[in-house]
Amino acid sequence: MAASVGTTPGGTTPAGMTPAGTTPESEKDTEFQEREKILCPDFLSVAQITEMLAEDVDGVQQKLEKLLNFRNLQTCLKEASLLDYYVSGFLWARGMDFSIIQYSKFMTLLDMLLHNLRTLHMSLEDSIKWLREVMAEIGPSHSQKNEEWNIFDVKQANAVVDYLKISLFQHYKLYEFLFFSAREEIVIGTEGTRVQALVREDPSCRGATKPVCHNY
Predict the structure, then answer these.
(1) Predicted local confidence at residue 139, as pLDDT
(2) pLDDT tens digits for 8-43?
(3) Which of 20, 46, 105, 207 could form a Cys-Cys staple with 201, CB 3.0–4.6 A?
């Protein structure tokens, strides 16, 4: 059976052969470096992750609050909700006993999903598609050649996806509300499964002034 060939500036080279001046090891290193660029830059540095691993829940919250530069947690629903999103994610990862690199990529994944929603106005369907593509790169591979480059194994990758379903995707419309409505709410009462919220003016959150009532 004839070998397939690929066109090169100097002629043709059988597919799978190593070009002159390179070695299988250098090609391997190059591909690994390309995979390392996925989900970069990191949301948390190795030093920041190491510090937070030594903290209790309050300590993790305080460090993330400072990192995110949140100063109006008591009055800004948006800041409070986003801080909870990141803190909950970090604590969940700690329960999974992730390695430092796994922490790094997972937290960057959380941040990138919000970035895509906030800056690209990415829909829920597009976010799920984006996540699928990313997990195909950093999750388990069918190729034994790349097994050592996988950041998450099959069980971990499935757990990450399941967590994102319940932490972000099930509440996607609420996050869209946080980013695009520019409103601040104070819960003033409940009735059945309805939460009545009063919108008030808050300069830190660019608030409006009319009352609304949302279902949760």
Answers:
(1) 75
(2) 334 433 344 444 555 545 544 544 454 455 567 789
(3) 207
Structure letter (DSSP) for residue 36: H
φ and ψ at residue 164, rounded to 5 degrees: -65, -30
- C-alpha 27, offset from chain centre: 29
Helices marked H in 43-99: 46-53, 57-67, 77-95
Residue 153: CB partners within 8 Å, gap ≥ 6? 140
Length of the chain in terms of residues written: 216
User: Residue 5: phi, psi to the nearest 5?
Assistant: -125, 155
A 10 A CB-CB count for 196 gives 15
**Distance between CA atoms of residues 68 and 179, nearest Å:** 15
**Do strands 5-8 and 194-200 pair parallel, antiparallel, or not at all (unpaired)?**
unpaired
Task: Report the C-alpha gap between 108 and 50 in whole angstroms.
Answer: 15
